[in-house]
Amino acid sequence: MRISAKADYAVRAALQLAAAAEAEPLKAEAIAAAQDIPHKFLEGILNDMRRGGLVLSRRGGNGGYRLARSAESITVADVIRVVDGPLVSVRGVRPPELSYTGPAESLLPLWIALRANVREVLDGVTLADLAASELPAAVSALADEPEAWTNP
């Protein structure tokens, strides 16, 4: 699985908004500066997130962006799906829509298992978890494995 720059920027922007949940709305310029995200690219991402129901925007001098719901109710998977689409696809196709024959038949359950594991991690971590630096125990256990930090 590859996390796109767009998805990375979207999660970082969402975390910036989560950290400012009770404050005034944040301007895109402030989010871009705080997270070192190209401003124009961020504007498109914030629009995708607005259309996807994750952020609200307000125009004007006191305008800006804020989360549309609590950080506890928005998962990392929600953010990625809004900006990039399905979490796991093969050649742009969702795994259940694939079919293989012969020795490749066992690929389908492999792709389904991969998708299930990606979902388990990304649907199990909320913006509030990340903003508080408190990953769920199962995710922390995966990250604590020494092999997780090496590139084979």
TrEMBL record:
Q: Which UniProt keywords apply?
A: DNA-binding
User: Does the entry feature the keyword Membrane, yes or no?
Assistant: no
**Which parts of the chain are coiled coil?**
none
Q: Which Gene3D superfamilies does the protein's record reference?
A: Winged helix-like DNA-binding domain superfamily/Winged helix DNA-binding domain
In terms of InterPro entries, this protein maps to: Tscrpt_reg_Rrf2, WH-like_DNA-bd_sf, WH_DNA-bd_sf
Indicate yes or no for the key word RNA-binding: no
Q: Which GO terms describe its molecular function?
A: DNA binding; DNA-binding transcription factor activity
Highest taxon, organism lineage: Bacteria
Know the name of this protein? Rrf2 family transcriptional regulator
Originating organism: Streptomyces agglomeratus
